[in-house]
Design goal:
Blueprint (H helix, E strand, L loop, with lengths): L7 E6 L4 H11 L3 E5 L8 H13 L3 E6 L10 H7 L5 H20 L4 E4 L11 H18 L4 E5 L5 H11 L4 E5 L1 H6 L5 H8 L3 E6 L1 E3 L10 E3 L8 H10 L6 E3 L6 H21 L3
Parallel strand pairs: 1-2, 1-10, 2-3, 3-4, 4-5, 5-6, 6-7, 7-10
Antiparallel strand pairs: 8-9
The protein binds magnesium ion.
């Protein structure tokens, strides 16, 4: 069976009630997901098999497993800088081990890769901090390569120029980008479409998410809004992905919860379906 190019997907969770999560995916009518890795106590080989089987029986593909770590906080941009990803030195060794455990879990699920927020990589490319972060990313990439996994770095916390320099310096074929255009706006780290063109050859997956700019970009958060209602220009975003030869899923991420999330995701799916038709993607 020929695979659909750029299938529409959603970001879900496999850590809580899996049947409910799967039913929600089926309710919105897609068959591709990314999800956060469950906590360490749920990352056994047996649990991975159960999760993989449940998604497979529902006809849903797992396209990426996302890393997250205890102690990460997203309250403000300065707090993200201090607490998120592999950048903070105090937690780096422990989180590296955790990332490897998530990679094992992803491989048992037969997922193609892991996604990760590395954190605020130093914009000073000659600094020891930059070199240390590139090293740790390289170690993750090597560990994942041995398991047949890609490592997709989420965009947003650093500029596209710095992200590109990380990738060019690390030089790992399985290392790429999970491009989230809204994050570029939320964090004030650059115009997202220009950034997409810049790192385009490395894009292995994406988040379809929208946002509006803050009046103080980089200092205060922008606002995440339903897909198509923000400053991303989602049609242009998909157009550029298409021009880049990207064929992977268009994974909708809507970072709210409850009924409103489902409503917004359904509306987002409609937005993407219409764009796919206009661009002749099938
Ligand atoms: Mg994202």
């Amino acid at each position: 069976m020929a695979r659909v190019r750029m299938p529409i997907g959603v970001f879900t969770s496999a850590g809580g009630d899996l049947t409910a999560a799967i039913n929600k995916v089926l309710e919105v009518g897609v068959n591709s997901v990314q999800f956060h890795a469950p906590g360490p106590d749920q990352r056994s080989r047996a649990r991975a098999r159960e999760i993989a089987d449940q998604f497979s029986e529902a006809g849903i593909d797992i396209s990426l497993v996302f890393c997250g770590f205890a102690g990460e906080r997203y309250d403000t941009i300065p707090i993200v800088r201090e607490t998120v990803g592999l950048v903070p030195a105090a937690t780096r060794a422990e989180r590296l081990q955790n990332t490897k455990s998530i990679a094992d879990f992803a491989s048992w699920l037969d997922a193609p890769g892991i996604g990760i927020h590395v954190g605020f990589v130093s914009e000073d490319w000659d600094s020891p901090e930059f070199a240390e972060v590139v090293n740790v990313i390289g170690e993750v990439a090597d560990y994942c390569a041995e398991r047949g996994l890609t490592v997709n770095l989420e965009t947003g916390q650093e500029t596209a120029g710095t992200l590109l320099h990380v990738l060019d310096t690390a030089k790992k074929p399985n290392l790429g980008v999970n491009f989230d255009p809204a994050n570029m706006i939320l964090y004030g780290s650059g115009e997202p479409l220009e950034a997409l063109r810049k790192v385009g050859k490395y894009v292995k997956s994406c988040h379809c998410k929208d946002a509006t700019w803050s009046s103080k970009p980089g200092v205060e958060w922008g606002v995440e809004v339903p897909l198509g209602q923000g400053d991303v220009n989602i049609e242009k975003f998909v157009t550029i992905l298409n021009e880049l030869g990207y064929t992977g899923p268009l994974t909708i991420e809507r970072e709210i919860s409850g009924e409103r999330q489902t409503t917004d995701i359904k509306a987002g799916i409609k937005v993407l379906r219409d764009i796919r038709v206009r661009l002749g993607i099938r």
